[in-house]
Structures are given as C-alpha cells and as structure tokens.
Amino acid sequence: VFPETSLRVTGVDFLKSQNTQQHHTDGYNIKSLVVRRGQPFQVQLSLSRELRAADKLSLRFGIGENPMKNRGSLLSLKPEREDFNGWKISVVERNGKECLLSVTSSPNAPVGKYNLYVKTGSNTYKPENGVIYLLFNPWCEDDVVYMANEAEKEEYVLNDTGYIYVGSAYSIYDRPWNFGQFEEFVLDACMYLLDKSKLSLAQRRDPAHVSRAMSALVNANDDSGVLLGNWSGNYISGTSPMDWIGSVTILQNYYKTKKPVRYGQCWVFAGVLNTVMRCLGVPCRCVSTFDAAHDTEENLRVDVYLNEKGEKLNSLSLDSVWNFHVWNDAWMKRTDIPNGFSGWQAIDSTPQEQSQGRFQCGPCPVKAVREGDVYLPYDAKFVYAEVNADRVYWIVKKVNGKDKYFKVGTETQAIGKNISTKAVGQNRREDITREYKYPEGSKEERMSMQRAYSFIRPSGLTPRSGYASTVQTLGGNTQPLVPKEPVTKTGLDLEISNTEPLHPGNPLELAITVRIAAPGTWTVDLTGSSQLQYYTGQVQANLGTIKETISLEGPSEMQIPLKIPPDAYMKTLSSVEDEVLILVTAIAEVKETNDKLTKETSMRFQYPPITVQMPETAKLYNDFNCAFIFKNTLNVPLENCKLLVEGLGIFKMTTFELGDIMPGRIMKSEIICTPTRLGDKKIVAKLISNQIKGISTEKGIYITE
Q1: Which catalytic residues are annotated (predicted)?
Q2: Which of 96, 245, 310, 335 has the fewest CB within 10 Å, making it most exposed?
Q3: Which of 559, 574, 604 is the last residue of a domain?
C-alpha cells in the first residue's frame, strides 16, 4: 500500500452548539463537549481523501488513567458494526473528504470524562480538546434517572437557582440559593469528586452508588471532601456558614485548592450536594424538615430536659431536635432493591452519623420511609427516625441532693413537620410531608409505624453512638407500640405566640394561651421560659421566665404575657456568629387532676427588607445598572454590615463593606451588570451584620438577544 493512499484524519468537529442544544447541556461554561448518555450526538471527520469500503475506521473512547478493552474502560467503535458495550456508531453522510458520524452511548454507560481518538488503519488521530463529558440523562427512557415530566426536569436538572427553606415550623422562610451547576469549573469539580470517590466503572453506571459517594464527598469528614462542618459559633478561620449565598464560590475554591472549604452547616451541605447532583444529570431537590430529630439512638425518641424554671438544659441531651434540617432527594429507579421503591431517594451530606464507616447517608427511598420499610438500603432507619421520633420532656429536680427526673409530657406528632421544597416552576414553597408520612392518626400511618417498629425495636435498646445511653436510667423504655397523643382529663391545651413583631432592639412581646375544654373550675400552674438557641437546638442564652397559678372556668382560655426586654438578649444577639431563634417553653399542670402538658415553639426575629432596583429585561452583553437599597428601620445600629451579591450569568460574587448603619439610615450600593447568558436570570443579595445574620432577597431579570 502506498503511503499517499493510506487514510488519515485531518480534523474532528464536535459540532458543539448543535449537540449541546439537543442534549440540554448548552448551559455548561466549558470548552469541551458535554453530552448525556443513551442519546445520539454527531461528530464530523475531515479526511485526507474520500472514505472507501475497504477502509478501516474506528472511534476509540477511553475513560480513566489507563483505558483497556478487557476492563470496559476502552471502547472501540466501528461504523455499522454491532454495538460494543451498548454503544453504537453509524455514518450519517459522506461528502467528499468529509464524513458525518452519529454516536449513541449506552443508557447505562459509566458517567465521566472520556478521551476520544480516531484510528484509521495504522494511523491514530488525537483531536485537540478531545475530551467528552458524559452525564446521566433524565430525557432518555432507558436511563434509570429518566423523568417523564418536562417541567420537573426544567426545575430539578436545569434550574441553577432556587430556595432553601429554613427558620422554624412556626415561621418558615426561604433563603435564596444559587446552585450554579453550569458555572465555570463546577463540572470539573464534580468530575474530580467522581475520580476521588474511587467508584469502580460499574458503580459509575448507577446513580445510587454515585449519589451515595457524593453525599460522603461533599463533607470533609473522612475524605478531605468539599466542605468542613462547623457548629461551634467560631468561624474566624474561614467563612461563616451564614455568609454563603450559593454553591459556586465553594466548588470553585475547592477545585482550585483541592482542600476542604471552611465552613458549612446543613443548608450549605444540601445546597452544594444539590449542585453536584444536578450538574451530573441526576434530578435533585433540597428538602427541609422542621423539628427534625437527631441522634435518637434508633429508639425513636428524643429526650428534652428542663430545669425547674422550665428552661431547656443543653448538657444532658445526647439527642436533639433541630429547628430545621436540610437534605436532598435524588430521582432514580432503584435496581438494587425490590420493585416499588423507585422515585425520590433521600441523600444527606451533613456529617451526623457514620454509615458503613463513612459520613454518608442514602440513597434512602422516600417511599420506604412512608411505608415503614426501614430495613431497605441505605440508612432508612436513620431517616425514618429524623421525621418520626417522639419528643419526651423531663423536669430535673434536686431531691436530697440527687438529680431526679420527672416526665412532664410526650409529644408524638411534633417531629418531622412541614417537609418543604421549592415548587416546580414557581417561586413558592411546596409541602411534601405526605410523600414522607401518612396523615397523623390514619390507619396507614399506624400500619407503617408498626412495620417500622418491628425492624427498629430489637436493636433500638443498644446505644448506637458507642457511649452509654442516658435513656435507660430514666425508667427504661415504657413506650406503647403505637403511641398516641396523651388525652388529658380536662382537655388541657397550650399555644405560644408573639403579640408584636419580633424586631431586634424591641421588647419581645410573647404570650402563652392556656385552654381548658372540660366544664368546672380548674387551677393551673403555668411555667414559661424564653431562651435564644441555634437551629441545632443548642441553647445560647436564658432570657426570662414566668411562674403563675391561674384559675379557669372551663371551657375557656386565658392569655398570659411573657415580655423580654431588649437588654436581656441584644448582647447575645450581637456576639454570636449564627442566626438565633427565640425558643419559648411552657409547662402546665392542672392541680385537681394532675394533668401535665409541655409545649415549645421556636420563632425567628423579623428584619427590614433589602430592595433591588433594576430593569425587568436587558439585552445580552449590554450593561445595565442594579441598585441595592436598605433602610435600617430598627431602633438599634447594625454594626459591621456586609452586603453579598451574586447574579449567575450576570456578575460574579461581590461583597460591599458598609460599616455601621445607624437607626433610620438608608444605604444604597450599585453595581454595573453585563449579562452573558440568555433567559430568566436572578440576582441574589444578602445583608449580614453583628446583630442580624439573615436578611436576603432576590430579583429576576429576563435577558434577550
């Protein structure tokens, strides 16, 4: 054969704009081609001469360090040949020296970075930038992450902004969050995590393995992953968890330094894991549970200890109820467990408990939580307890110099309330509690609970954390199999509320309403206390207590005020680095019948708003002006104010140092914006100061050509 007739490739065109539009990957800010598995993409070859029937031509796709055919990490595809590992390639058209090929990867191909080169006879051509990123494909019916509904894919895969719901069950609020899965280096950071996970090629085919590995790698606990958790209140050596407004800076910093970023708390872990899963092509949402149980030693109960004034004690409780906890649901068909448990799977990257020796959690089928099938992998008992535990209140009294514990109430419906996520295609909260639990008191709920208890009970009495449980010493496990709300003889009920807005710097006007349903004259001893606590339930300060004995003519109610002066809490508010909530605990005891009831409510402070002024639409690459306006309507100065702003596809994360803002003062910050991407975009702003951690807002803008 004469050399001049041997076939050589002179160029490869990856037809990026056409392929990425068809694959819904045109958002990724990256040079290389990004495509989804199980769906055809085209490449155009330029050849040294026309292609002939006798020519040998093959495309080779290699993944990993040292690709080999017998390991499945090197695929050699010849046109019109039977498929290789589920991959196919065909000639679409030949036109002189040009040849258009169509490549279809397998719908269960390993996800990751592939290197492409072209072999013609003994010649090998390596295109420059010949890296192809292959992702999961929710648009492909044969992919286990397939999602039929178009609007849901738009939200759970392609939306790069959203909200994370925080606060307390009494006052839920939304924290805008920029997921930013298409931003520069974010996909590369995810590929780095995939390599770091040491998943085998076979495991990289399966979103269950991938999501479990990512839940471990988003926290830094045992694998120098992305984020270091810190709940200490001291963040001087890093960024306070309250100061993030999105995942982009975190993942970019991590990719640049390959060292854990400081610091995260649960909503930051969930925000970053959401970015990673969406970036890899797995539909994913952030899920917030209010009053979530933690570390219940799998005995499905949380013990809360109060002193005689009714104030919660930190030191005794190993277990706790967090005002809210945020994890994620990832969407997939589970091929490793019996049918009927596909769909949403809970995954959690907040480091709380080790699972199989690592800080990872899930994927746990949400349906298994609802049905009580808590033996299913992974970590279903743990997730079940987070949303279904009971809360038991004990008063600790000194009797002859020794601590004695008296039970003053059991709440069986207090845990796992208002489970929330952002609604599809709308900027509002959607309540998904029904996906996790049957209605309280329904027949299905009772059956589900009995099922769960049959799996949890036997191991439930051995402490899971390795240290002795405090629970056994308090009168063993006296719980009935299906606990019900204790029905009091008098129909005693308590409600806690605020009668004036809770503005920092003002007195906190709180109230406890005592109700009695039974006719007659009743004497009620009421103990009320107010404290400041972190969202994890850690008490930071005692603010004040009341003790009153009231007489009620049933059926009736009476409102008892509990007023906290600003001096009682402002110092704590200014000195802590985290957002704090106001915890009110009330204990009522009816003298005549010995009925006891305990109730607690957490509330958040209310803050003045940030206003964003900018046009509703703008043209691509045309500058526009955006102004942030904030008026301090409180009667206290806000010290060391910082304004954090970010607009994906508009401008990078920017911080304005604003110093102190005195009462009544108006502050205005401006930024010039240059949109680089089309469509609906959002600008997110957050103000933090010594006194206030959580004022945030967002505003949308539509970018046209």
Answers
A1: 266, 325, 348
A2: 96
A3: 604
